[in-house]
Fold:
Amino acid sequence: MISAVRICPKCGAEIPADAPEGGCPGCLLESGLRLLDEEAFGDLALTEMKLGENALAMTLAARGLSANPIEKDAATGPWSLEVFARVTAATGDHDRSIAALKKLLSIPYEGPLAAHTPLTPALLKLDPMFDPLRSDPRFQKLCEEKQK
Structure:
């Protein structure tokens, strides 16, 4: 039995035969992401990072950062920046990770993970999520500095 090719009405992409009605998987995901609150982007980004979906993790971390910047919300904006620092460290974008860490170490904030502990130079030395940065001299300097 030959089935007709379905085309996504939003983007024009071919819809796989096993995809649900209403659009291609990319458009369905995009429309679902619009319904999420800002904090969900961080959780999803960290999950995708651990699953090895680096491109999606970076997209979600960047989306969270743009949806909830520090300039918009000083209380929860740093959460998105910390998630961004963690994802960029794990996915190999060390320059952006270190820049985010510098910013985080320079401001008071409540961390996004369970205990809400903010990153400190001492915690950077211990946190395994930052292992990819350990050999970078800039990261080593952050671990030693006492920020203002």
Observations:
- Strands lie at 6-7, 14-15.
- Residues 1-35 form one domain.
- The radius of gyration is 19 Å.
